[in-house]
C-alpha cells in the first residue's frame, strides 16, 4: 500500500510481458487497484489454446477485448483461472465463461464454473503450456499463485503487487499464512529459477527475489510499529492506523485497518500483546 519495490518496473502495464504471458489492463483504476486489474493471457508459442487468469471486473468491453486479443494471436480461450475471489479479479468470470465457453477454476468452490477446481501443487497443461498451482493464502484464504516455469515467472494476484504493498484482508486473510506464503515464494525465487513477478495490479517486476525480500522486510517493520503503537497506548485498529500509517494516503486507511486487525491478531496469537 506504500513504497516502491526494488528494480520495478521491468515492463509497462499492458502488453507482452514474457514469451508466454500478455497483460490486458482492465479499466478499473482506483487507490486499491492501482492502474486497474491485470488480466493475464497465457499461451505456449505455436499453440492455438490460451489460458486467462483473472478476467477482472464485469466490464463487457474489457472482457471482449481479452477475447479479441487472443483471437488476434490465433488463440482460443480454453480455460479461465482465478488467483482469488475478490470482485476486481473475479466479477467478470461468469460472463467471460459465457463468451468463451471455458470453465472457470478457482480454489474456492463458490467461484468455480464447471466440475473442477484448483489445489495446491496441481500441474496444468493447456496446449503444451505448463502451469503450476501454488497455494499462497494470507491476502485471502483462497489466494493462489501460478508458476510459469518456462518463463521463470510467477503470477501472484494480490499476494505481491507491481507497486507498493498489499493488504491482509482480515478476518479471511491471516498474517501468519501470508508470511509463510512470502517465504515460500522467496524459496522459489532463490532456488528454483523464478525471476519475474506478473502481478494482479501494477507493472511487471524483473527481480522476484528482491520484491519478496522487500515485502518480508516491510511486514516485519510494520509489525514492529504496530506492537510499539499498542505499547504506547493505542487500543483500537483505527488508533493504530492513525499512528503507524500517517504517511499513507487516507484513501487507503480502510485497507490499512484490515491489515492492522490481522497484525493485532498475529501479535496476540504469539503472546506479544495481551488479549
Task: Report on this structure.
The chain is an alpha/beta fold and 275 residues long. It has a single domain (15-215), classed as 4-Layer Sandwich (Metallo-beta-lactamase, Chain A), CATH 3.60.15.10. The protein has helices at residues 60-72, 87-90, 93-100, 175-191, 208-231, 237-244, 253-269, and strands spanning 15-18, 21-25, 38-42, 49-53, 76-81, 103-105, 123-126, 129-135, 144-148, 153-157, 196-199. The chain has a 6-stranded mixed sheet, covered by helices on one side. The protein has a 5-stranded mixed sheet with strand order 7-8-9-10-11, with no helix packed on it. β9 and β10 (153-157) form a beta hairpin. α1 (60-72) packs across α3 (93-100), α4 packs antiparallel against α5 and α6 packs across α7 (253-269).
Quick overview of this protein structure:
By secondary structure, this protein is α/β, with parallel strands linked by helices. The chain has 7 helices and 11 strands.
Briefly note the CATH topology name.
Answer: Metallo-beta-lactamase, Chain A
Mean pLDDT: 94
Strand line-up in the sheet with most strands: 1-2-3-4-5-6
Name the beta content range: 15-25%
User: What count of structural domains?
Assistant: 1
Secondary-structure-based class equals alpha/beta
Relative helix content: 25-40%
> How would a crystallographer describe the biggest sheet?
6 strands, mixed
CATH class: Alpha Beta
Tertiary shape: elongated
- What is the CATH architecture term? 4-Layer Sandwich
- Kindly, what is the distance between the CA atoms of the first and last residues, rounded to a whole number of angstroms? 27 Å
Amino acid at each position: 500500500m506504500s513504497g516502491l519495490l526494488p528494480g520495478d518496473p521491468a515492463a509497462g502495464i499492458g502488453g507482452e510481458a514474457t514469451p508466454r504471458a500478455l497483460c490486458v489492463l482492465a479499466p478499473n483504476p482506483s487507490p486499491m487497484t492501482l492502474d486497474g486489474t491485470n488480466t493475464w493471457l497465457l499461451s505456449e508459442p505455436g499453440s492455438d489454446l490460451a489460458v486467462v487468469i483473472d478476467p477482472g471486473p464485469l466490464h463487457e468491453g474489457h472482457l471482449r477485448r481479452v477475447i479479441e486479443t487472443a483471437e488476434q494471436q490465433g488463440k482460443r480461450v480454453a480455460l479461465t483461472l482465478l488467483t482469488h475471489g475478490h470482485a476486481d479479479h473475479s466479477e467478470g468470470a461468469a460472463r467471460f465463461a459465457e463468451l468463451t465457453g471455458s470453465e472457470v477454476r478457482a480454489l474456492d468452490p463458490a467461484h468455480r464454473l464447471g466440475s473442477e477446481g484448483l489445489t495446491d501443487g496441481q500441474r496444468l497443461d493447456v496446449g503444451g503450456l505448463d502451469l503450476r498451482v501454488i497455494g499462497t493464502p494470507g491476502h485471502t484464504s483462497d489466494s493462489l499463485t501460478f508458476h510459469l516455469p518456462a518463463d521463470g515467472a510467477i503470477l501472484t494476484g494480490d499476494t505481491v503487487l507491481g507497486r507498493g504493498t498489499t493488504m491482509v484482508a482480515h478476518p479471511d486473510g491471516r498474517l501468519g499464512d501470508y508470511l509463510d506464503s512470502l517465504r515460500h515464494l522467496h524459496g522459489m525465487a532463490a532456488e528454483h529459477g523464478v525471476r519475474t513477478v506478473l502481478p494482479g495490479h501494477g507493472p511487471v517486476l524483473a527481480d522476484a527475489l528482491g520484491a519478496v525480500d522487500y515485502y518480508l522486510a516491510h511486514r516485519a517493520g510494520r509489525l514492529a510499529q504496530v506492537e510499539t503503537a499498542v505499547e504506547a497506548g493505542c487500543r483500537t485498529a483505527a488508533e493504530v492506523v492513525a499512528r503507524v500509517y500517517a504517511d499513507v494516503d487516507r484513501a487507503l486507511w480502510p485497507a490499512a485497518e484490515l491489515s492492522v486487525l490481522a497484525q493485532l491478531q498475529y501479535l496476540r496469537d504469539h503472546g506479544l500483546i495481551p488479549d
